[in-house]
Amino acid sequence: MFDFTQYLGFLLFLTVLTIGFWLMFFLVGFVSYWVGGATWEAYKERKAKKKAEEQSV
């Protein structure tokens, strides 16, 4: 009736779609973590620089 070979293309499509979804999910989390960390470090550097300038004056 139906052969397994008829579904190979569909299974390949689902596999690629699933891999793409999880890769996007991981990258969104990783990039937001990276940007948040960089922003926090820049904030701490500015705060330390401002504090050092206030102490030197």
Count all strands and give the number.
0
Helix fraction by DSSP (H/I, runs of at least 4): over 70%
| Cα end-to-end separation | 87 Å
Indicate the low-confidence ranges by residue numbers.
Answer: none
Q: What is the CA-based Rg, rounded?
A: 25 Å
Shape: rod-shaped
Helix/strand class: mainly alpha
Tally of helical runs: 1
What is the string of helix and strand elements? H
Topology:
Elements: H1 8-56
How would you explain this protein's 3D organization?
The chain is an all-alpha fold. It has a domain at 9-40. Helix content is 86%, strand content 0%. The protein has one helix at 8-56. The longest helix has 49 residues, at 8-56.
Structural features:
57 residues; mainly alpha
Summarize the structure in short.
The chain has one helix at residues 8-56. It contains one helix and no strands.
